[in-house]
Amino acid sequence: MALEHAILVSLSERAGSGYELTRRFEKSIGLFWSATHQQIYRVLKRMEEAGWVAVDVVAQSGRPDKKVYTVSDGGRAELVRWLAEPDPSAGPMELAVKIRGATFGDPGAVAAEIVRHRSAHAERLDVYRQIEKRDFPAPAGLQGQHLHQYLVLRGGIRVEEGQVEWFDEVLAALHHEKDA
Amino acid sequence: MALEHAILVSLSERAGSGYELTRRFEKSIGLFWSATHQQIYRVLKRMEEAGWVAVDVVAQSGRPDKKVYTVSDGGRAELVRWLAEPDPSAGPMELAVKIRGATFGDPGAVAAEIVRHRSAHAERLDVYRQIEKRDFPAPAGLQGQHLHQYLVLRGGIRVEEGQVEWFDEVLAALHHEKDA
DNA sequence: CGTTGCACTGCAACTCGTTGCATAGGACCC
DNA sequence: GGGTCCTATGCAACGAGTTGCAGTGCAACG
Fold it and tell me: Which nucleotide in the DNA or RNA is closest to residue B16, CA to C1'?
């Protein structure tokens, strides 16, 4: 699971409380991700026990105390480790977190991970296109069940196309950044 | 959850055992979906208790007996109901199942559901594009953290674009089918 | 002045899904 | 002959995530 790592990235960008993190996840990171406050509170507790984050209880006027979390050395090390670790089962959300976290680790290692996923998705796309060619050579005349199955396949193809194009855009930008 | 309904669609296309369904989910429906045999066995049991499917124990030579499941009248009614029911929280997988199941219900109702989701995603896409314009007016010069945040946003935009295009393709095909 | 809403944390119970293990007979390989 | 794989079902335990509830105290609405 990568909620921990998503929190590490978010806290690396800016320290914050559980409540604040919940708000953030509804927006920026939450383009892909969603998490309830419950989930975040529990994961934060676990992360504190593991020594990845440090807590600072801040009294506030008028409102309840809040626990502001900061990434510790252990957390930074874990984030660097995770960013470089290949994970074939990672989905777009995990990769988005890795990209967003690249600043806090080795951008080259993140790029390498993207390359791996790019080829996996390109292969899949190829399989889908072959199925399309083989099973639906004349899509214009399709009806009923066959049409509906074709449309679902088209969805799969579009998703994979989008992924591959995105990975290419990311890789081009990361290479360009390295050169600059 | 829609695993039940995915199974109803799959069993409507063809009767089968839990084991067989597991295999199917690894392929066709599993373009988007994945489910372990455990999950499927348990859901099938629940569906049987609810009267959505009927079981037929088939003895086989050499291999264990298998339980072949068939959709019952109750199951067909439930599928029709679910296909027509609006579900704002449905993701691409759920919609793919609805599209694939349109044959067994009212394709017009499914199209209406797609229209709803199309406009939701189009709105989101608009929001993302405005964020892009506002926060990243000159993407070519971006570096570090800002670049990485931009790339994630680009991923979100591509995903939404892909969704909207897919919905449009589906709607065009369903309309064309209705006229034919 | 009462209600609604927001900020902030947390417990308890639940659902959904995965993993490990068990069983059992046959096929296939070396 | 022994190992492993495939078909076929299922239990038990676990992990991840959601939902419901609960409490506090200020601010703003009408």
Answer: D8
Q: pTM of whole model > 0.85?
A: yes
Whether chain B has a CB inside 8 Å of the CB on A115: the answer is: no
Distance, in Å, from the CA atom of B45 to the CA atom of B40, rounded to the nearest integer, reads 9
Tell me if residue A76 falls in helix, strand or coil: helix
Contact (CB<8Å) B92/A165: no
Give the rounded distance of the alpha carbon of A78 from its chain centre: 16
Contact A24, A16 (CB under 8 A): yes
Closest CA to A21 of A60, A50, A47: A47
Q: What is the pLDDT of residues A148-168, one digit of tens each?
A: 999 999 999 999 999 999 999
B124 CB neighbour count, 10 Å cutoff = 17
Sequence letter at residue B74: G
The answer to whether the Cα torsion of B78, B79, B81, B86 is positive or negative is positive
| Cβ-defined contacts of B88-91 (< 8 Å, 24+) | B88/B116, B88/B120, B90/B2, B90/B117
